[in-house]
Specification:
The complex is a heterodimer. By secondary structure, chain A is an alpha+beta fold. Chain A is 25% helix and 35% strand. Classes of the chains: A alpha+beta, B alpha+beta.
Chain lengths: 434, 499
């Protein structure tokens, strides 16, 4: 990648200077590539809002330690390549004192052999994008004649990227990756999606359609829900958004732990304090084949790996970049897909059979508005399914579910049913107001 | 005055010529953005950067209305030409598919030329980034000094953004969208309890952190929020249910944007609760007769945009007029289908995004409100109680709930449901009793809630800046309304949620 070479040569020149622009160490990552996307809205492919698009992508991030001990962290844009001297001067202008930021790390061995590139995706981006049209046509053909269908919307996309990382300490790695994603939504209401570094197979697409069809059939009858305190199942996507909001983005975030903005202190992690039920394991898997979140290393050169943030209900580590790892005296953590791991889970269908009256929460409104401070939540269910005598009898919209997410994770009675392949939902008892 | 984007004229003209050679109509969107960001946590700098960004987005249309899009940040003749070619080939390739959406509306609009630059009091470079860092640290330090238990994160962002839109019909228009905002997030952790809230002050330039009137507003808000989160540590939880409520201009604005405005956007009117077979049914009674809703550009406000991303002048519209549906938030591509005028509401966050229908400043208005004889920033809870009693809104034995400090909202225009959240909620009871409760969501159905009897208090205030995230694109927006609205108790609005 010529651009990376050009930048590193210029940074090395500045390392030899003797004035205020002298650079002590540097590290950067640049990604270049192309992305193609096709959309469908209300049964029609394309149109002004969903027209097929081709994007020429250049993005990067740089970290510089100056000789005067100040640091700079910045994004890199293509235009900076036009005048790298000017860019370096701008970075120097925006440098600041940050005593917690460690030195640029020595290079570590990075797993460059992990599976993150699919040649079929490359071919779509470089040669023939007609498979994306085929995906949308497939959705249309499979769903257009269903009795419930009014509108079908969706998208299909593919991308190919070349990434290079370099540092003054000798890091010099590069890799090629691909991304692909697709979704379909019927009546602007029920949807299913796929997103990986590997192209969706015909079976994957059939599974998406099958899931949408099942949920649409369950939605045909609208049921008036009763208020009360009763069993509620949070579907995997909803449960994932709880983990993102209440743990990953807040109480397990290294910056928040360090800044006393988390309920958990660093001593809680060092002492492996038990905070949830012993069944709860939260794993970051950076080595998963073709996961969208898999990459050989983080933007700071931390190699991909598998780690537990929570194991057997005990705190193991917050999510730590180099700065907060250094500040808190712990190891920095890798990137990757975050999975809730429960050793023994019943299948969701068998759990539903044992519920006399309950609610399945399929979609919610307002997660981003919640105050995660103490785990309390109060959310509107935009799409839910009502359970009566062990069966799903219809759908509902608008009830408010309220409770405390941390209490659910502590509760031994909470059940974590399996849904489809690796997905896990949560069955708990909480307040529902209609 | 010469625009800084003038130097790209040869590149842009070449791209228009290239589109012509490809036999397609083109809209070019050149964006030039400079973003200064500083973050201070308890006196220490956490981030400090100036990030420039430039690029061009290209929408092309074949004669039969098939369209495609390409973007590049490489502002060189070859890259831009390649992008035009890619988009043109993609648009032409659509002709073999039967269910492709065609749209020729851009061919029929009048061309527009000129510069629509919003003047600022201070230039982007009026202060060095080091000076701005010191000022942000001062705000952070003074805020933290309000309560020694406080952790304070102060972020300041100043954005200089200019767009130039060219079309194949000769349109060549340049406009800017400067914006500036200081946000402080306050939290207290004590005895395993935590409480937090944030507030902001916004505008279009450095005046947000330099001018005394803006500083005064900042510190009044800081004091209120600091006291609020301290009290919230030991506050109880409000019982879920329906209440008569008092909404500040901040929540009225959030309601105007989220619950009422989004369903009026014409790019998805086919699925909106307001649309009837994809059209706006004008003259439908949806709100009390004293209530109107507006949307449009307001000079000097955060998120103001005079020109659409398709090069069309943006209009101010009264989309609900005296309680009746009247107009819609429309752009060139969907106005005709919706049965309304083209109101120039197409916006794109970045050059690499396709424009969609968006709001800018949206507000709810009672044209004949109760009068208010005090500045709204200086009102105490006791003042508010007296206003409610004096105007006969809080009678003996009754309760009014008053949510404070908005934490955002979300709406489903298809299902017709909305949800807002607040950092805390007060109850006013007569005989006089004022109680604070913890964060409480309020939600309901859009049509029922909008139709509920509402009475405004005081003048219209538009100052609540936010970022709307429709379809993954962040657009800076403002909203507001009369200082307060009293909304009758209704089954269509639920507060709290715990049984």
């Amino acid at each position: 990648m010529k651009s990376a070479q050009k930048i590193s040569e210029k940074l090395n020149e500045y390392s030899l200077r003797t004035d205020e622009l002298k650079i002590k160490d540097w590290m950067f990552q640049v990604a270049e590539g192309n992305n193609i996307q096709l959309g469908m809205h209300n049964n029609s492919i394309g149109g002004p809002y969903k027209s097929p698009s081709v994007d020429d992508v250049f993005q990067g991030a740089i970290y510089i330690q100056w000789d005067d001990k100040k640091v700079s962290k910045s994004v890199m844009k293509f235009e900076m390549l036009e005048d790298i001297d000017k860019a370096i001067q701008q970075w120097k202008t925006a440098s600041y004192n940050d005593l917690d930021t460690p030195d640029v790390p020595e290079p570590k061995e990075v797993p460059l052999d992990i599976k993150i590139k699919d040649q079929a995706v490359v071919d779509i981006v470089r040669k023939d994008s007609s498979y994306l049209f085929d995906i949308l046509n497939f959705y249309n053909n499979e769903l257009k004649d269903k009795p419930y269908t009014k509108t079908i919307s969706g998208s299909a996309g593919a991308g190919q990227y070349f990434v290079k990382m370099l540092s003054s300490k000798g890091l010099n790695i590069e890799w090629e990756s691909t991304t692909t994603s697709t979704y379909v939504m019927v009546n602007d209401s029920i949807y299913d999606a796929y997103g990986k570094r590997k192209l969706a197979t015909k079976k994957d697409l059939k599974d998406i359609v099958k899931e949408v069809d099942k949920l649409m059939l369950q939605s045909e009858k609208e049921i008036m829900l009763k208020s009360g305190v009763f069993p509620v199942i949070f579907m995997p996507d909803v449960l994932g958004s709880f983990f993102d909001k209440y743990l990953m983005g807040s109480h397990l975030n290294g910056e928040k732990v360090s800044n006393n903005k988390s309920l958990f202190s660093i001593d809680d992690f060092k002492s492996k304090k038990k905070v949830f039920d012993g069944r709860i394991n939260l794993e970051v898997d950076g080595l998963k084949d073709f996961s969208s979140a898999t990459s050989p290393c983080s933007g700071e050169g931390v190699p991909a790996n598998k780690i537990f943030l929570i194991a057997n209900g005990r705190l193991i580590t917050p999510i730590l970049d180099l700065k907060y790892a250094n500040k808190l005296g712990m190891e920095s953590t890798c990137f990757g897909e975050t999975d809730l791991k429960i050793n023994t889970s019943p299948y969701q269908n068998s759990v539903i059979k044992n519920i006399d009256y309950g609610l399945i929460v399929h979609d919610i409104l307002g997660m981003h508005t919640q105050d995660e401070s103490e785990g309390r939540y109060s959310l509107t269910v935009s799409k839910g399914f009502v359970i009566e005598e062990g069966k799903i009898v219809g759908c509902t919209k608008g009830p408010v579910v309220a409770g405390n997410f941390f209490d659910h994770l502590k509760d031994k009675k909470t059940v974590y049913p399996k849904y489809r392949k690796d997905e896990i939902s949560m069955k708990t008892v909480t307040s529902v107001t209609v | 005055m010469k625009s800084k984007l003038d130097k790209y004229t040869p590149l842009l003209k070449d791209a228009i010529d290239r589109a012509k050679q490809n036999d397609v109509y083109a809209i070019l969107r050149l964006q030039d953005q400079k973003n200064l960001g500083i973050s201070i946590f308890d006196g220490n700098t956490q981030a400090k950067a100036i990030s420039p960004m430039k690029g061009i987005g290209i929408s092309v249309f074949t004669k039969d209305g098939s369209c495609a899009f390409a973007s590049t940040s490489r502002l060189e003749k070859k890259s831009v030409r390649d992008s035009v070619d890619l988009a043109a080939n993609l648009a032409k390739s659509l002709s073999k598919y039967s269910q492709v959406k065609k749209n020729k509306e851009i061919f029929y609009v009048e061309p527009l030329t000129g510069e629509f630059m919003q003047p600022t009091e201070y230039s982007f470079d009026h202060k060095s980034i080091d000076e701005i860092e010191d000022i942000a640290k001062e705000f952070n330090k003074n805020t933290k000094s309000l309560d020694d238990r406080l952790s304070v994160n102060t972020s300041y962002a100043n954005v200089s953004e200019t767009w130039r839109i060219l079309r194949s019909d000769g349109t060549d228009v340049t406009f800017n969208m400067p914006r500036s905002r200081i946000v402080s997030s306050l939290s207290i952790k004590e005895n395993n309890k935590m409480s937090s809230a944030h507030f902001n002050v916004a505008g279009i330039d450095l005046s947000v952190i330099l001018n005394s009137d803006k500083k005064e507003i900042y510190y009044k808000k800081a004091k209120k929020i600091s006291e609020l989160i301290s009290q919230l540590l030991n506050a109880g939880t409000i019982k879920g249910g329906n209440y008569k409520c008092l909404l500040s201009y901040s929540f009225a604005g959030l309601n105007a944007h989220e619950a009422v405005g989004h369903p009026f956007e014409t790019d998805d009117l086919e699925n909106s609760i307001i649309g009837v077979e994809g059209k706006l049914k004008k003259g439908q009674k949806v709100a009390p007769s004293n209530i109107s809703f507006f949307d449009g550009p307001i000079e000097g406000k955060w998120g103001n945009q005079f020109i659409s991303a398709n090069g069309i002048e943006r209009k101010t519209i009264e989309f609900i007029k005296d309680g009746y549906t009247n107009d819609a938030i429309s752009d060139v591509f969907s106005a005709k289908d919706a049965g309304v005028n083209i109101n120039g509401c197409g916006r794109a966050e970045f050059f690499s995004k396709k424009p969609i229908c968006r709001m800018t400043a949206t507000y709810m208005v009672d044209k004949n409100p109760y009068t208010l004889d005090k500045n709204h920033e200086d009102l105490t809870l006791d003042d508010i109680y007296e206003i409610l009693v004096k105007n006969g809104e809080l009678k003996k034995g009754r309760t009014i709930v008053y949510p404070v400090v908005g934490m955002g909202g979300q709406v489903s225009p298809v299902e017709g449901t909305f949800v807002f959240n607040c950092a805390g909620i007060y109850t006013f009871e007569n005989p006089k009793k004022i109680t604070l409760y913890k964060q409480a969501l309020f939600s309901g159905d859009i049509l029922g809630a909008t139709a509920t009897k509402a009475k405004g208090i005081g003048p219209v205030i538009i100052s609540d800046p936010g970022v709307c995230g429709k379809m993954g694109q962040g657009a800076p927006v403002s909203d507001g309304g009369n200082v307060f609205f009293v909304i009758d108790k209704t089954k269509h609005i639920n507060f709290g949620g715990e049984q």
